């Protein structure tokens, strides 16, 4: 029985355990079922915020409802479920309520974010989806919070109108705050800017668009430019607004006209403060530039190009020197205008030299000023040149060449136009005209010269024909090269076995009534009656000097004067038979031969003393003889011949009867030009002078050292002398001065020190007189053509009068 009881107890216990297990299992199944069905009824959008805990048949609601209505809706839906005994909503709360209720779309780079408040998770999902659809290619991120407080359900209608706006911004935000919409930021493009600034949606009643505060796309750097070329003016880059655009284009059109102005402008933000004023002021310079690039890059202002004219170049540079726009850095690069033809005019009138026209550089201007000063003498040249581009190659050399040609003119003009030089005016001397023509034959490479220079005006007008034992020599002047040729032909026809030398030059001033060819024909006929002689035509008078071998010859000459060409009057006739007095001086560089008749030993001594003084240590060969037939005034004629020979480099001086004839070559062109006038003033009474002297041909240049050595040798053999107590160069020293000046010309870069020593005076007086004597020689050198700037003069006291010339330091 006990075992039965025990078995019964064990059986009851087992049954209870089985029953309890069954009950527990059923309860778990009920909870799962209720939880599943609760989730299903709460899955709707209105209650998707909710979750439940199930304990037996009781349901505990959890989560934050968007509103009280939604919380009650969840309770109601759960309460209607079969099997639920009770719904406990005490743990279910409400979303926080915010005011103002702000929902914001924010664009930054390639991302659009949702921030602020949204009503619910489904609403958030719909909003994010709408944003993504409206901005394809942009990432959409969520930074929003769930909250209550939206104005009303039209909130969602307004948001849908705003979805597309972030895509129009490069940065910024679109905000709905309660019922107010604002848009702020920077447009992604000018088209987007136009859409944003014209955005005017039809919002539900009570909602409003408060502001659209957007900037145009940011340009960094902010670049704007104006470019001018042959095709027109192009305005490019960006401007901040239409008003600025219109203003800048108006400035361009006012400057260059409305045609060929090309507008490539766009709009952007980022303009520096003062942009419009500075850009407009810079654009205003466009009319001064033939080609231009004017630009602004942020605060860097660049004005470059080529000036439209020389006046524009000066004006523009003057403006830009003083223009300093505040806050901006100005860079300028203005090229010279191109001038065509590129002209330069150099004129010389009454000793004044004027240079005007165009030069390519300040350096050329300086060189021209120096060259002009060298030919202007004591007056200061007037240099009024303008800088410009367009000069042909080697223009500087051609310009200095033109100035150098004017040195040989009394008055004249050199006009350089491109590569063509036109020269006009009057030559200073016939020798200058010859040298001028030689120079013109060798212009700078690439240039040509038109020579309109007239011969020098000769007054009185002189022409001559001379006959000696070997040749006929034509001297004086002819008005044209054609007439010179015609005269040579006439004289050559009568020359027989004699040679013919034409030493005549061109000269203006002949009486138009005179036919110089007829004069030459008459002169040739007269000289046919003489052994030697000269026929001179001076002004309108024809004169003759000479020696006839017979009385009949002399008479024939007189008959020729009975029938002179029209307009010609008879001058002096001095024809003789063999004369009682003859004296000759033959001059070589450093040799002298004396020949002829002298009256006595006193006259011989006077002649030798004069020769020693005039020719220094030259080799003098005296072949003269004493003669009782020498006339009384022969001594003055012989001494004059010595003086005349001292002025020659080589040649002859002859005294035959009453005729003194000087022929040969001077050391320089200046010496040959000076010789006739110097001798004419000192011809002894009763004698007639004939001069036919040219200059030695130019010799090659010398190095400075060689030049100094040559000058020293000349001075050793023949010192320069001065008149007693005076700074005047002695008459018989002009030849050695001419020789030394010619040597100085051969070394154009050498500088010389001229030091005159004076004896017999106190130091101050000696220095003063010495300085004056050195300046006299320097002045003579300058007349020869030596640049005065190469000569330094001084005077000192010493035991012996003299003058030294040595090389000076460069």
What do you see in this structure?
The chain is α/β, with parallel strands linked by helices and 810 residues long. It is built from 20 helices and 39 strands. Strands 23, 24, 25, 26, 27, 28 and 29 form a seven-stranded mixed β-sheet that branches. Helix 6 links the parallel strand 12 (232-239) and strand 13. Helix 12 runs parallel beside helix 13 (516-527), helix 15 packs parallel to helix 16 (634-646) and helix 18 (704-717) runs antiparallel to helix 19 (734-745). The radius of gyration is 59 Å and the shape is rod-shaped.
Note the topology.
Elements: H1 2-41, E1 51-55, E2 58-65, H2 68-79, E3 86-88, E4 92-94, E5 102-108, E6 111-118, H3 121-134, E7 139-146, H4 154-162, E8 169-177, E9 180-187, H5 190-197, E10 208-215, E11 223-229, E12 232-239, H6 242-256, E13 261-267, H7 275-283, E14 289-297, E15 300-307, H8 310-322, E16 329-335, E17 343-349, E18 352-359, H9 362-376, E19 382-387, H10 395-406, E20 409-417, E21 420-427, H11 430-440, E22 448-454, E23 462-467, E24 471-478, H12 481-492, E25 499-502, E26 505-506, H13 516-527, E27 532-538, E28 541-547, H14 551-560, E29 569-576, E30 582-587, E31 591-598, H15 601-615, E32 619-622, E33 625-626, H16 634-646, E34 650-656, E35 659-666, H17 669-680, E36 688-695, H18 704-717, H19 734-745, E37 751-758, H20 763-784, E38 791-797, E39 802-808
Helix pairs in contact: 6-7, 9-10, 12-13, 15-16, 18-19, 19-20
